[in-house]
UniProtKB/TrEMBL annotation:
The keyword Transport applies. Keywords: Cell membrane, Membrane, Protein transport, Translocation, Transmembrane, Transmembrane helix, Transport. It comes from the Bacteria. GO terms for biological process: protein transport by the Tat complex. Part of the twin-arginine translocation (Tat) system that transports large folded proteins containing a characteristic twin-arginine motif in their signal peptide across membranes. TatA could form the protein-conducting channel of the Tat system. One of its GO terms (molecular function) is protein transmembrane transporter activity. The lineage of its organism: Bacteria, Bacillati, Actinomycetota, Actinomycetes, Pseudonocardiales. Residues 40-55 have a biased composition (Basic and acidic residues). It comes from Actinokineospora spheciospongiae. GO terms for cellular component: TAT protein transport complex. The keyword Ligase does not apply. This is Sec-independent protein translocase protein TatA. Belongs to the TatA/E family.
Length: 104
């Protein structure tokens, strides 16, 4: 589809008549902001793709050091113990809130 200068002028006039001349600068500004956002996002996506590709290519040439040994983890608390801790913290918070209300 090839648009000539007369078709572009007619389209511009229709757009001005539909939206009004006062809203045209606002529409152009928002269109520009949208284009900037899209450009930044696509640039970021390309950067992510390149960053993911580079470590894969460089991985065979670099030897990785062995992972450090972590200390054995402490056993997790039971749900009842966690609930008791939460209740205790909530009581402390309520006491502090009450003390602040009394001070004011």
């Amino acid at each position: 589809m090839n648009l000539g200068p007369w078709e572009i002028i007619i389209i511009a006039l229709v757009v001005i008549l539909l939206f009004g001349a006062k809203k045209m600068p606002q529409m152009a500004r928002s269109l520009g902001q949208s284009m900037r956002i899209i450009k930044a996002e696509t640039k970021g996506m390309r950067g992510d793709d390149e960053a993911e590709a580079k470590p894969e290519q460089a991985a065979p040439a670099v030897q990785q050091a062995p992972a450090p040994q972590l200390p054995p983890s402490t056993p997790e608390k039971s749900p009842e113990q966690m609930k008791a801790e939460i209740d205790e913290l909530q009581r402390k918070l309520a006491a502090q809130d009450q003390a602040q209300k009394n001070a004011s």
